[in-house]
Automatic annotation (TrEMBL):
Protein's organism: Phytophthora nicotianae (strain INRA-310)
Residues covered by the AMP-dependent synthetase/ligase domain: 89-480
InterPro entries reported for this sequence: Ac_CoA_lig, ACAS_N, AMP-binding_CS, AMP-dep_synth/lig_dom, ANL_N_sf
Name listed for the protein in its UniProt record: Acetyl-coenzyme A synthetase
The UniProt record lists the keyword Ligase: yes
Keywords of this entry: ATP-binding, Ligase, Nucleotide-binding
Alphabetized Gene3D superfamilies for the sequence: N-terminal domain of ligase-like
Acetyl-coenzyme A synthetase N-terminal domain ranges (all copies): 31-87
Length: 595
């Protein structure tokens, strides 16, 4: 079970010394110095990182202007670049035959590998197909696709020609997709005939057909073939068979020169009224932040096999399956299936087969696998692993320790990442060679993130061993710039609660060592559930909380609440189930509106 270096001392676990030897950030003192500079001199700190890590068509004049208070932030003014060039072309020049994407299909043995050269060619073919259909710079393109390589081709193709992609999770209903198409006035939709997940077949094209019915502004539905089911209907008026269309177009498309603040993508998240919010991210700031957080959080090295087993329909997939890893030139693994298919050894099997070095999943999956015991995991060789990431919600200490001791054999760093769709990338996370770990804590703020803990009136609470509302004082490159089509909503949601601060909507505790623990959602979305100790970490967390709690209500089993992982003893002590039934019903309706 590893050596004494992996043992807790006063609640802290030291960084992995073997990782520290080659890490980008080798000790806590180096982190502190860089963090201090990132707050005191953001102009040069981020300017240097941008010039060192990104390729520019035109250099920028100024790194940052604007303030959080006014919501008028801009980064890398007058600079020009292209996302796809930074994620593909420049790597083709250095290692054309390196594998860019490993696709692990739902059925074992049916996946494939795509080199950087192949990724460039496929991306360009999709880009040319879009241009042929009339897609221009600034147009919005919706993507409702399963986790197949083509979703990456389409996203990257959009960035190549300057189109704005809007990826909609392929588990959402036709109504949810329709709402998003209407909100962004989207003329083009990419989908697949069907999807595969956990042995099930998903009728994606059928859902799209329902969503676009009567929407006269939708000009084309581009359809990739996942299952090649001949029963899937095609509408000759608007549907485009991408298997045939790809054959018609050249494998090269010139990259558009994009201004640093040009809109890159929209990603819809829930709003307090049930109406979706189109979180808008811009080109240079988002790309740099996704790249740098991915590089430092996972200490990416050239020979890494990096696997984030999330879905591209969430911000995690955008930042840490597609853009972050590819901008760094590493091999990224896309996972179509589930951790339980065909059995609960699926994660361990893919780690062994591909010799995965960096692995990123959610506490939901970790807890489910932990509940199955340790026998299955012992069948596999997981010695290639170096860093284990957790995303989507704070990981409870019991699951953290199992992840660390059983999966990582006390030889892997646990990166407990805290962030939001709106932040673009990690804002609270430990660094593998530098930061001691604490179960349940996202540890310290990332570079440029100036955490402020306030009371309910917005007054800063200084010092350690405190609890309050978590805000951010200064702008950072990855922050969302607006809510698409409704900047006032952006200001009201994030910049108006506490003047001069970005309001995360989360409560937090800062312990005696200055470590941060996220304690619960405090905005109007989940305010009524605050006393239950429930958290909001994004739509995945919403859905899990709603499912678990509503099932318990239906079965009239309040005693079982104490057995639920993740909510801790606070939930058991505070829940008066039947007195709160109306709150749960309201919450369920709230969740249903985003699903």
């Amino acid at each position: 079970m590893g050596d004494s270096a992996g043992v807790s001392v006063n609640g802290q676990y030291p960084p992995i010394q073997e990782l520290a030897k080659t890490a980008h950030i080798k000790n806590f003192e180096q982190y502190e110095a860089m963090y201090k500079r990132s707050l005191e001199d953001p102009e040069n700190f981020w300017g240097e990182l941008a010039r060192e890590n990104l390729d520019w068509f035109r250099d920028f004049d100024q790194s940052v202007v604007g303030t959080v208070n006014k919501g008028d932030v801009a980064w890398f003014l007058n600079g020009q670049l292209n996302v796809s060039v930074n994620c593909i072309d420049r790597h083709v020049k250095k290692h054309a035959d390196k594998v860019a994407i490993i696709w692990e299909a739902d059925e074992i043995g049916q996946g494939r590998e795509i080199t950087y050269t192949e990724l460039l060619e496929e991306t360009c073919r999709v880009a040319n197909a879009m241009k042929h259909a009339g897609v221009k710079k600034g147009d919005t393109v919706a993507i409702y696709m399963p986790m197949i390589p083509e979703i990456a081709f389409v996203m990257l193709a959009c960035t190549r020609i300057g189109a704005v992609h809007s990826v909609v999770f392929a588990g959402f209903s036709a109504d949810a997709l329709r709402d998003r198409l209407i909100d962004a006035n989207t003329h083009w939709v990419f989908t697949s005939d069907e999807g595969k997940r956990g042995g099930r077949t998903l009728p994606l094209k059928q859902i799209v057909d329902v969503a676009v019915d009567g929407l006269d502004f939708v000009r084309n539905v581009f359809v990739f073939k996942r299952t090649h089911n001949p029963e899937v209907k095609m509408n000759p008026k608007i549907d485009v068979d991408m298997d045939e269309e790809m054959k018609r177009h050249r494998p090269y498309c010139a990259a558009e020169f994009m201004n640093a603040e040009d809109l890159m993508f929209i990603l819809y998240t829930s709003g307090s009224t049930g109406a979706p919010k189109g979180i808008a991210h811009t080109t240079a700031g988002y790309l740099l932040y996704a790249m740098i957080t991915c590089k430092y959080t996972f200490d990416l090295q050239p020979d890494d096999i990096y696997a984030c087993v999330a879905d591209a329909g969430w911000i995690t997939g955008h930042s840490y399956i597609i853009y972050g890893p590819l901008a760094n030139g590493v091999t990224t693994l896309m996972f179509e299936s589930t951790p339980m298919y065909p059995d609960h050894g699926r994660y361990w099997d893919l780690i062994q087969r591909y010799k995965v070095t960096k692995f990123y999943t959610a506490p939901t999956a970790i807890r489910a696998l932990m509940a199955r015991g340790n026998d299955k995991i012992k069948e596999y060789d997981l010695s290639s692993l170096k860093i284990l990431g957790s995303v989507g919600e704070p990981i409870n200490p019991e699951a953290w320790k199992w992840y660390y001791e059983v999966v990582g054999n006390r030889q892997c760093y646990i990166a407990d990442t805290y962030w939001q769709t709106e932040t673009g990338g990690h804002i609270g996370v430990g660094l593998p060679g530098a930061t001691p770990m604490k179960p349940g804590s996202c540890t310290k703020p990332f570079f440029g993130i100036d955490f402020v803990v306030t009371d309910e009136n917005g007054n800063e609470i200084k010092g350690n061993d405190i609890e309050g509302q978590l805000c951010i004082r200064k702008p950072w490159p990855g922050m969302a710039r607006t809510v698409y089509g409704n900047h006032n909503r952006y200001l009201l949601t994030y910049m108006s609660t506490h003047k001069g601060l970005y309001f995360t909507g989360d409560g937090c505790r800062r312990d005696k060592d200055g470590y941060y623990f996220i304690t619960g959602r405090i905005d109007d979305v989940l305010y009524s559930l605050r006393s239950f100790g429930l958290f909001r970490w994004g739509e995945e967390g919403h859905l899990e909380c709603a499912f678990i709690l509503l099932m318990m209500l239906m079965r009239k089993l309040p005693k079982k609440l104490g057995e639920v992982d993740n909510f801790d003893e606070r939930l058991t002590r505070s829940v008066l189930v039947w007195q709160r039934f109306e709150q749960f019903v309201a919450f369920y309706r709230r969740v249903k509106s985003i699903a």
